[in-house]
Amino acid sequence: MIHTNRIRLGILALGIVLGSSLSSQAQQTTQPDTQQLRSYNVSRESFLLGTVVKFATASDTPPMGAHVILQTSSGQIDVHLGNPRVLQAGHLELNPGDSVRIVGETLALGDSTYFAARIVQKGTQAVAVRNTRGFLTTPASVMSPAQKEALRGVR
Amino acid sequence: MKRLLLMLAVAGALWSAACSGNGIVNPPPPVGKYTKASLNGQYAFVTNGESFTGGLSATPLARTGSFTADGLGNITTGVEDVNAPGMVSPALQITGGSYTVNADGRGTLTLQLGQNSIDFGIVLTSTSDGLMIDETSNSSQSSTGSGNFIKQSAGSFQVSGITGPYVFDFAGLDGSGNPESFVGEFTANNGAASAGFFDDNDNGTFSSGSFVGTIAQDATLSSFGRGIALIAGQNYVFYIVDSTRVRFISTNGGMLSGDAVAQSNTVPTNVSSVNSSFVLIVAGSSINGGITRVGRFTANGATVTNVLEDTNDGGHFIKTDSGTNASIALDAANPGRGTLTFTDPNFLNAPGKYVFYLSSATQGVIQEQTVNNSGAVDVADGTIAAQTGSPFSSSNISGTYALNWSGLSLQNSGSFNVQDEEDLLSQVNVTSLSLKGAADIFQFQNGVPVFDLVTSGSISIAGDGTSSTGASSRNTMSVKLTKSNSTTVNFVVYFVNPQLAFFTNNQDMNRIVAGVLKTQQ
Asked: 20 to 30 A Cα–Cα from B204, which one of A26, B152, B159, B395?
């Protein structure tokens, strides 16, 4: 419940964020240097405008999580949306044909790149799936502090 | 030979008996030395995971507490502190409970909290400690998570006994729900924490510096080793295990938890005295999702060689077979603190950087500080430990082990697949590098844990990582879990010593887990 409330608060703040972010950024067209794309920087953000071709809560290609194939004026782009539960909690459904606006940036994973969404907007609904440092808005820590204690095996 | 054949025949009969007629396979009856009497006394426990009490999303959850087992299957008393970010439940009284211990050290633990109860699967690693996963699934809540429990020494419950330098790793979430890793050291003396120094990675923002704090006994609950601390401006509750270990959980400004471990006077003060191989494991959040890194290196003074590392970054697997410009350095001003750097030739613009705090010459905590293009690539921390006991082989990787992994996996939520926490706890007998045992697994999206999966698999040993052909000296492990159907998970394994190994999955982009294989004593 707390988590849901946090997401709702995030949604309220998105109007301001979108207003400043979208107006100042151009749609990404340049070829990225993958060596420079292993961290997230809001100053590099751009936005995609397009139509949902396919939405999947799981994908055959990493990163793990939900992906949407977006038809844009530049062609189809695979966008990583993170944990689909965040969209669900924000009551944002993506269906083929939906027009969406996605704020994010291109990141490198291995030798390839993908578009990492930070904000997904459909109509007046917007959900933050990453924070401004690029980390997914669901806790993604995969090993608990407690387990790390176990790993130490000190006893 | 006759005895071996007899044992095989008996094992075969037991295995056949374990296979029921409804397609569900159950493990054979457990064998071993453990009984209910093996869990007897006061234990400090921790788990970290998620809880679900309704609504659309699960909530992160950290528990730290103390329970008392009577050696007969009863929990007589205890207390726990719970932190779900933004909602702290302090000093919940454990009013009773029960437990079981099978001969193989597997068992169950139920803690009664008034009208409510929480359930755990346990595996004893000795009569003094064990691993646990939260398996609570009842009408009031579901919760999961991995953790452990360690026998407390009531004679050490005075704050005056917490004295000298301590190294800590507190990890979790900051006050805004963002990932945070907070590692460091302090010196305790009669309730004062001084000479503190920390390295913090809060949502990708690094900071470090000195701090002070206070440590005070809880007058009401001191019999549980409970106390209250202020560390670098943040409030914590703690439980004393003994004078060498204190378990902390934050009570404001987020959800951080972890242990502070006494620092021995064996920590190297000059880098020239560091001559050892080390294994490291870190885990946390990356910009691609979850991340685990397991690796090893050899330090000869400041010179670092034989770097091997395996990364699972959001389901993308990276093998680092060597490191250039590799070195370690020690911080003369802060004993035990140091840095490790190396560059994976494939990631020239993101040289790997770690800061570590050694609690002894062979143990410590470690935090990743790799930066690319002025930004942090992740928030991750974990353990560094000296690698000893090689060569590793079927002759020394043998006996019974507790096995635990935790992380994320793709799970079916009914209408669609979703990534959610996965925790597994198993006990396996390793013979000729083959694994046989039983496990519980909780894939949290399913709402209910699955008990008593038949666990099998194998370990493949290629070396300790010091081979000149580093890439070919990776050790692997496959674990097959069988109930009504089977799943096999494949791992890369780094042995710290024959009694302890760290692993992470190196296949399957829909799973990001890391874990520990730890011998039973």
From this structure: A26
